[in-house]
Amino acid sequence: MSKADRLFEVLGYRIYLNDEETLIYKHETERFEYSITFDKREFKKTFHAVEGIFVPKDVEQWSTQEFKNEWLKYCASEGHWENIWHEFSIQELQAINLKCRELGWIGGEDETWKLHSKI
Fold first, then answer.
1. 22: which strand partners?
2. Which residues, given as ranges, of the chain have pLDDT below 70?
3. Cα Rg for the chain, rounded, in angstroms?
4. Reduced DSSP (H G I as helix, E B as strand, rest coil) percent helix, strand, coil of the chain, to 5
5. Alpha helices, DSSP H, located in 34-108
6. Residue 108 burial (CB count, 10 A)
7. pTM above 0.85, yes or no
8. For the chain, how many structural domains are there in total?
């Protein structure tokens, strides 16, 4: 397990998928589901985050929902999931930055300053 993986784990994330092209970290709570996805394909080298919230049926505000089993929260008869804007914590940004370095997408501070000097 890499340092970035351990940092994501401390922040409550787990590796959901890690294959040749994609790496997904997920963090789930009763109401929210966060995912940070790294697209490792050579022509992409990007990441994005999604924060989803479950909106129970016939409720106009976000609320917690008790489910009889884990799969009911994915059933449209119980409500629906909405994607909302994700605000990164500084610790999440540090983990993302560290993972980008581990993937070889960015170098150390010297590399960053070389890029800034070109702007």
1. 39
2. 56-81, 108-119
3. 17
4. 30, 30, 40
5. 90-102
6. 8
7. no
8. 1
* Gap between the Cα atoms of 107 and 102, Å rounded: 9
**Contact 25/15 with Cβ under 8 angstroms?**
yes
Exposed, middle or buried by CB within 10 Å (0-12, 13-18, 19+), for 50?
Answer: middle
- 106 lies in which domain range? 3-117
Question: Residue 32's pLDDT is what?
Answer: 77
pLDDT in tens, 74-104: 555 666 667 777 788 999 999 999 999 999 9
Residue 65, Cα to own-chain centre: how many angstroms? 22
pLDDT score for 110:
58
Token look-up 């490792």 returns 40
CA dihedral 85, 87, 92, 94 (to 10 degrees): 120
Give CA separation, 87 vs 48, 50, 91, 92, in Å: 12, 10, 11, 10
For the beta carbon of residue 58, count every other beta carbon within 10 angstroms.
6
State how far the alpha carbon of 46 is from the alpha carbons of 23, 27, 37, 64, 118, in Å.
11, 19, 8, 33, 21
Spatial distance between the Cα atoms of 51 and 88, rounded to a whole number of angstroms = 10
